[in-house]
């Protein structure tokens, strides 16, 4: 119990542990939102449609990878909730990625990018995967030089950025502009937050009140129900995993930051299995059970887990909808990618 108190203090949960949510229910009145720690997601307002359209093409273009086969969408599949449904991603030369692919949906709302926060924003992030040997396996120079041989791209970069020199900053800027459109407003829970009492069922509301009053909301709050702090995985009870990721310690070099991760968003969590940085939980029920025990020292009953899972499913919002882009054809100068080219030394 002492440990739990420390845990709750650590995430500043005391202030709202005493909310009268359940009391209101006891009076026979259905709980209505008031000063909740979760806010609705608003639709994104596009500032530069031409840049977004360019970014959309780049997002789907496998020619940004060495193999000519892997695009951003390979591991953040927008038909699969912006993730890949694998324990960890498959990269260049069938490489096994070290960590589970997070969803890109609503990632613009996160305070930093990556599980360990090593990129400040989407623009900084987007350069990473292109040059990562375990992901797209290319280099910025190679990716840009390929784009420069494709006349359709040269024209479109000029239309958007005003010159025919394609730079990696323009590539990542366009990708980020597209990613900013990938928000998912209008989830049933958001409709409820905005005053539509009937948008969620009694079971889902019960799940929400359990989520809130048990202290989940201490870490999963804000419009993204996460994405705004680093927290320890295994606060009350250690998390056992074979995954060797150092978490935030990989950035700070501080041992105390081991197993600290950016709290993942719970938006669209119904679609983004498997869960946790190591993909260790296959189902939402499993993830909720583990969170209860490891983060809060609380063993939920089976029916409580069902209710919380029902609530989590109300967080699925409108998925991005658009026509798929038709990508520009190569010119005669464009090199043909070869996924099976002999692999260079590991440092590659
Ligand atoms: C081979 C699979 C793979 C490919 C291809 C890939 N990613 Fe990722 N992406 C990942 C993984 C795995 C992570 C988590 C890495 C980490 O946190 O250390 C990630 C993290 C991210 C994040 C951070 C999300 C968050 O909440 O922290 C964004 C944004 C992102 N990728 C965008 C892109 C873009 C843009 C591209 C294309 C240029 C791309 N990704 C290509 C696997 C991939
Ligand atoms: C002390 C902070 C904290 C508390 C409290 C907390 N979580 Fe989490 N939650 C995290 C962190 C950190 C992760 C990522 C852990 C990892 O990947 O290793 C996470 C991950 C998750 C995931 C998986 C998301 C994904 O995409 O991988 C779910 C689902 C979840 N939490 C639900 C809950 C529920 C339900 C509760 C309450 C029972 C709760 N959390 C309480 C910090 C917290």
TrEMBL record:
Gene Ontology molecular function: any one: electron transfer activity
Any binding details for the cofactor?
Binds 2 heme groups.
Top-level lineage group: Bacteria
Q: Which UniProt keywords apply?
A: Electron transport, Heme, Iron, Metal-binding, Oxidoreductase, Periplasm, Peroxidase, Signal, Transport
Q: Which residues form the signal peptide?
A: 1-23
Q: Where does heme c 1 bind?
A: 72, 75-76
What Enzyme Commission number does this protein have?
Answer: 1.11.1.5
PTM details?
Binds 2 heme groups per subunit.
Cofactors required: heme
Instruction: Indicate which residues the UniProt annotation says bind heme c 2.
Output: 216, 219-220, 291
Q: Where in the cell is it found?
A: Periplasm
Gene Ontology annotations for the cellular component aspect, listed alphabetically = periplasmic space
Q: Domain Cytochrome c: where?
A: 202-316
Name under which the protein is recorded: Cytochrome c551 peroxidase
- Tell me what organism the protein belongs to: Oligella ureolytica
Q: Which gene encodes it?
A: ccp
């Amino acid at each position: 119990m002492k440990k739990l108190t420390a845990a709750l203090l650590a995430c500043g949960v005391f202030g709202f542990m005493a909310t009268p949510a359940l009391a209101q229910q006891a009076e026979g009145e259905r709980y209505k939102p008031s000063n909740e720690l979760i806010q609705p997601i608003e639709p994104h307002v596009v500032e530069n449609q031409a840049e977004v359209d360019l970014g959309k093409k780049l997002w789907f273009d496998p020619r940004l990878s060495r193999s000519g086969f892997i695009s951003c969408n390979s591991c953040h599949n927008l038909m699969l909730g912006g993730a890949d449904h694998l324990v960890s991603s498959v990269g260049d030369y069938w490489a096994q990625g070290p960590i589970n692919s997070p969803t890109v949906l609503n990632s613009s709302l996160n305070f930093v990018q990556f599980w360990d926060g090593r990129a400040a924003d989407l623009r900084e992030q987007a350069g990473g995967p292109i040059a990562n040997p375990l992901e797209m396996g290319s280099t910025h120079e190679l990716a840009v030089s390929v784009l420069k041989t494709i006349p359709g791209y040269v024209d479109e970069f000029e239309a958007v950025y005003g010159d025919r020199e394609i730079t990696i900053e323009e590539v990542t800027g366009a990708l980020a502009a597209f990613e900013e459109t990938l928000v998912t407003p209008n989830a049933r829970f958001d409709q409820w937050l905005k005053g539509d009492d009937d948008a969620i069922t009694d079971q889902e509301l019960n799940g929400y009140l359990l989520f809130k009053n048990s202290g989940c909301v201490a870490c999963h709050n804000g419009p993204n129900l996460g994405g705004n702090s680093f927290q320890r995985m295994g606060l009350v009870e250690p998390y056992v995993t074979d995954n060797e990721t150092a978490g935030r310690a990989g950035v700070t070099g501080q041992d105390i930051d081991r197993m600290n991760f950016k709290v993942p968003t719970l938006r669209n969590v119904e679609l983004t299995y498997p869960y946790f940085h190591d993909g260790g939980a296959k189902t939402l029920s499993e993830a909720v059970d583990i969170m209860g025990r490891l983060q809060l020292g609380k063993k939920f009953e089976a029916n409580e887990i069902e209710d919380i899972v029902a609530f989590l499913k109300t967080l699925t919002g409108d998925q991005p909808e658009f026509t798929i882009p038709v990508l520009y054809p190569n010119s005669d100068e464009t090199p043909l990618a070869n996924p099976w080219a002999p692999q260079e030394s590991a440092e590659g």
